[in-house]
Structure formats: structure tokens, C-alpha cells
Amino acid sequence: MIITIKYFGLIAEVTSQEEETIDFSGNTIADIINFLNSKYPDLKNKDFQVAQNQELISEKTKITGQEIALLPPFSGG
Amino acid sequence: MIITIKYFGLIAEVTSQEEETIDFSGNTIADIINFLNSKYPDLKNKDFQVAQNQELISEKTKITGQEIALLPPFSGG
Amino acid sequence: MTDKKPKNVFKQGPIPSEFIGESIAKHQTKTSIGAHNIFLGQVRADVIDGKTVSAIEYTAYEDMANVKFDAIRESAFEKFELTCMHIYHSLGIVNAGEICLFVFVSSPRRKVVFKALEYIVEEIKAQVPVFGKEIFEDDTHQWKINN
Amino acid sequence: MTDKKPKNVFKQGPIPSEFIGESIAKHQTKTSIGAHNIFLGQVRADVIDGKTVSAIEYTAYEDMANVKFDAIRESAFEKFELTCMHIYHSLGIVNAGEICLFVFVSSPRRKVVFKALEYIVEEIKAQVPVFGKEIFEDDTHQWKINN
């Protein structure tokens, strides 16, 4: 499954990029977090939420193959 | 005792003036209100507070001979 | 009451939107401020018994009003951690749609400005001897009463 | 989520005080309005470990943020009797003392605007994916976190 992953703020600093497209065979958001933790070991210490299709979701949520985003703590305003 | 009385808003309409100076021999604010009620019979139906020396006071307050003001309900802002 | 004469809060006529913009601009040198909160009172074209309000004419017991505004300002500075506070109120004619009250508070942090602004506006409505004459389009009028 | 694309809340760079003044002026034709309440977020020159913040650089997950802003707007209109509501947020560099957030609510009566404005600002802080990078005078930085 082809997934686009977006990174923001501090998380984009850790991954050194703002977006990447990967071919991924896992089922849940937890699977993809595990995969990203291996690829970017510094991610493990960071606080972030995950959005899929622009909605915040939990680790148990199934991947639907659309846009995933890793969002550090919000600091607007 | 010479007293300056100021009228505002609706009260100034009833008295047809914004200020007058009277020579008055009563003791309390109640006395002056009785006097003004006789002079301006339409005052009786009106809602107002009394200030003396720019402080709101009750009818029992003694007249100090300074500035008295009859204030209808506030409607600033 | 102190001997110092309180600041004059009143402005003749409506408060222009440009004046509000300029007040905001003046605060940009104060870099400890993180949050501003502004209240604006605007004259409504209320319809009362089929007649439309075209303007409010404001009068005030000015000396007492300025003392009261000053007391509200000091009380707000005591209650809330504010960097600045400004209050302006119109006197004379303010047409429907124009601004008659401008209250501006600033603080390092946001939570305090909401509480402070509401406190100040409610105090102004309750404590300050200002009187609004609602003038209808046919030149009749009625005296406004704050709720 | 509806199919209609949400309004874009973001503006590049700081929000000018003139823009705020002009927004106020535009509401003077709406003569059912009696009260406006405006919140402005301003960038603070905080001193952190001896270094002074000179600017915040804002980025956002823009599509999601605009959806969230839209949801906050709809929710506020449901909860409160508002005539108008406007939200603007900066993207990119906003220097200390400049304005990064402008929220503007208007209603016939005052009581509702205080509650509505605080609700909207708190929702923005909590729900909208915007990220502020605090840039120090020596060009180092840290990522801001809302409290």
C-alpha cells in the first residue's frame, strides 16, 4: 500500500523532511509508528499525535492508505 | 446653606434645567428629595439615584452643602 | 479619592476605527505582551414600537464618571495581571453602526485578559454615570437603560 | 466533513494593525450589532535561558487546520448568538511585538461575545495543528508548546 506521510515542526527536524511516500504492508497506525521509530530512532523520545485523512486517530486505527501526518504539540495563536 | 443641584438625562428633562443653586435649610438627602418632589411633581414617578460630592449616597445621608446630583439609570457603553 | 485629577475617558462623537488600529499599533513596542482583548460597544439601530433608532446622544456627569473610570481601572490592575488598560467612551451624538465604547486590555498571557475585560465592561455599565438618549428617525427619543 | 472547501484562515506574515482597523470599519454597516470582542495574540520577546525570542516562525498542516478552524467556527455559531465571526492566523515569520492571531466576534448583545471569544481562542489553541518555532536573537531556536 502506498502511503504519504507528512511531518511537521520538531518531527520534520527529526526526519529531515516534510513529506515522504512509502510502500507499506502493515495494518494499523501502531505498525507504521514502529516502522518509523526504526527508520528514525530519535522519534522515540518525541511527543506527537497522528492524523489520518486530517483526523486525529489512535494507534489501533486501521491504515486506509491515505495521508498520514505526524503532529508535534500544537502551538498556534 | 447654598447647594448646587445637577440634573442629568431624563431627570434634566423633568426639571427643564441641568443645574440650579438653592438656599436650603433641611438636614438630609430625604429632605431635599421631598423639596424637589414638590417643586417638580413629575419627579415622583422617576427612578433616580442621588450623588453627593460625586459619591452615591442613601436618603439618610446628611447634606454637607456641596454638589448634589440626581442621576437616572446609567446607560453607558 | 486622591488629589490627582483622573484621566479624561471621554471623546466627543464616535470612536473612529482608525483610532483603534493606531492604539493596537502603539502596543507593538511592548514585547512582554502576549495577548490583547478589545471590547467595542456599537450603537444598534433597534426597532422599538415600529420606530428605528438612528443615533444615541451620550451625556455624562463627567467629573464623577472620570473618578469612577479611574477607580475601575485601579481595581482591575489590582485584580488582574495586566500590562496596559485603556478606556474611551463617547459623548454627544453617535450614529447607529458607530462605536461608543472602546476598552483595551493587554497582558503577558491570555487567560487573564478575558476575565479582566468582562469585569471592566460590566463595571462601566453598572457604576459610571453616563446617559444615552436613543434618537429615532422621526426625531422623537427615549432614554436607554442598561440591562 | 462537507464537500465545500473551508475558508483559508492563514495570512503570510504578521497581521497588520491597519487590517484590524479596517475589519472593524467594515462592521459599521451591520447595525444589528451592539458588541464586538477582539482577541489578538502578539509574539512575546520571552527570555529563555538568557536568550531572547526575536520572532516566531509559524508552520501548519494547512488543510487540516482550515478544516478545524471551520469546525470551531460552526460550533461557535451553534453555541452562541453571533452575528459575525472572523479568524486570521499568521504563517511564516512574525517578529516580537507583531500580531499572529486575530479573532473577531460580534453580537447584538455583549454578554455572549465574552463567552464566545474565549471559547474560540481556547479551541484554536487546543485543536488546530499550527506549530510555532521560537527563534532567538543568536539564530538558535526551540519549538513552542501551548499551555
Oligomer: heterotetramer
Element string of chain C (H = helix, E = strand): EHEEEHEEHEE
CATH fold description of chain C:
Aldehyde Oxidoreductase, domain 3
Low-confidence stretches of chain A: none
Supply the helix-strand structural class of chain C. Answer: alpha+beta
Rg estimate of chain C, integer Å: 16 Å
Give the integer mean of the pLDDT values of chain C.
96
Q: What would CATH call the homologous superfamily of chain A? A: Beta-grasp domain
What's the level 1 CATH class of chain C? Answer: Alpha Beta
* Continuous helix count of chain A: 2
- State the total count of DSSP E strands of chain A: 5
Please, how many domains of chain A? Answer: 1
Given this structure, which CATH class of chain A is correct? Alpha Beta
Give the neighbour order of strands across the main sheet of chain A.
2-1-5-3-4
The string of secondary-structure elements of chain A, in order, is EHEHEEE
How much helicity do the residues of chain C have? 25-40%
Query: Beta-sheet strand percentage of chain A?
Result: 25-35%
CATH superfamily of chain C: Molybdopterin biosynthesis MoaE subunit
Radius of gyration of chain A: 12 Å
Query: Describe the biggest sheet of chain A?
Result: 5 strands, mixed
Helix content of chain A: 10-25%
